[in-house]
Amino acid sequence: MERCGWVYHDPLYVRYHDEEWGVPVHNDRKLFEFLVLESAQAGLSWYTILKKREAYRRAFAEFDPVQVAAFGEEEISALLSEGSEIVRNRAKVEAAINNAAKFAEIQARCGSFANYLWSFVDGRPIVNAFRDVAEVPAKTPLSEQISREWKRAGFRFVGPTIVYSYMQAVGVTMDHVVSCFRYASLAGSSAVR
Predict the structure, then answer these.
(1) For this chain's UniProt record, which GO biological process terms are given (predicted)?
(2) pLDDT (tens digit, 9 = 90+) per residue, 14-26?
(3) In the Cβ-directed half-sphere of 30, how many Cα atoms lie within 13 Å?
(4) Active-site residue numbers?
């Protein structure tokens, strides 16, 4: 079975590629999860974050943005303590808490974060037809636009490269290469919910 060239043979990575990456997400809690994880990845490999995903889930209240937005210094200290299994970087932890509040503001204003996010692409994923992973860009004009808007709204750790990785993860853009076994099903079902 042919997969995108970036997939390691580790079962965790294969499962992520086969079952999640590029699948359109419309669930706000899942969208917040990927925002926390993609922001935490800055400067690290996605595999490093993927291995810590369950720890992030526990540490960040099952990715409930309202609960995370209420975190204070006590929770921050616990997240940065020696026993913590997440990436212990104060700026990233504080960004996740800050971003939770901004995420909740958008939910209140737009009815859901999904409504807001998917409005950038008129509700339909951008389906690319790359033949090789080397063709996949690190950022696009749309990720630059979203990054600027998010930064103006007060989000942190949301540069255009992180935003593009986020867009790929939640299926706003579908970048499985055409030879990948996932390409046909995802390219042909852009209404997947």
Answers:
(1) base-excision repair
(2) 999 999 999 999 9
(3) 13
(4) 16, 38, 46
**pLDDT tens per residue, range 69-128:** 999 999 999 999 988 899 999 999 999 999 999 999 999 999 999 999 999 999 999 999
Residue 110 labelled as part of a binding site:
no
9 is in an annotated binding site: no
Does 180 show up as a binding residue in the annotation? yes
Domains along the sequence of the chain with CATH: 11-187 (1.10.340.30)
| 172 and 118 Cβ atoms separated by less than 8 Å | yes
Phi-psi region of 8 (alpha: psi -120 to 50; beta: other; left: phi over 0): beta
Whether residue 176 is annotated as binding a ligand: the answer is yes
Q: Are 41 and 92 in contact (CB under 8 A)?
A: no
- The 3-state DSSP class for residue 160 equals helix
